[in-house]
Amino acid sequence: MNELRRLAYLHAMGTDAYTSLRQLPGAAYTRRLAMVRKSSPAQTQAVPESVAGSRRAPVQMPELAPASVIPRLESSPPATPARRSVARSPTEEVSPRFSLAAVYCGGWLWLEELERPPVSAAQVQLVQGMATALGLIARGANGGDNASARPEVNQFDWPIHNNRQLDLGRDAARSSAAGFIQRKLEQLECRGLVLLGSGCESRVALDQLECPRVIRTLATGAMLLDPLLKKQAWPELRSQFLRA
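The structure assignment produced for this chain is given below.
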């Protein structure tokens, strides 16, 4: 609403309008107006008394001349509070997301990080083939693999929950993965751990594992994409098993 018209309404209703004598901190700047009246207050028509039917006559608004605007005193704007830089705690770091495949085969636990879960049948067959070539799987009476030596596949996914009030950072992920692997080593009575690829080693806190024999080789996913890597991985894998 126009300020002059609003003041005229308040005057006609007998309501006093007040304004602050000084600029209030944090408040919008007050636009001060000076009204010059053409007619005297005596010429202003008063509101008539109530008539029959409890209806009031329309109020005659006084004629007001255009107001001259009093220039606002220049004052310094309220100071903007400085922003404080808050350091993020380690628990607020972005939670990593990964999946680990734990394949029990030949008495060993073969661990590999999965790019696309779940682990494929070709990867499991490659692990079984390496275990057979190393003599970890006993042959059956008919020359085939022993049925009891079939690989057992498990998968670990992180994060295991979506509760942001709990720690979902890198250290918590490594500790949780180590706890999962340690349980599998004890439940399956594994002879040792085979790390397939450098990726899975960075996901596990090896210092928290009670596993003296740890062997490292290339990931099955990489060997399936590039079969020439099998020739590179086989001598290293065989020499490590001989030392173990």
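Interim note for the steering committee: Residues 1-73 form one domain. Helices lie at 3-12, 121-133, 170-187, 198-202, 220-225, 228-243.
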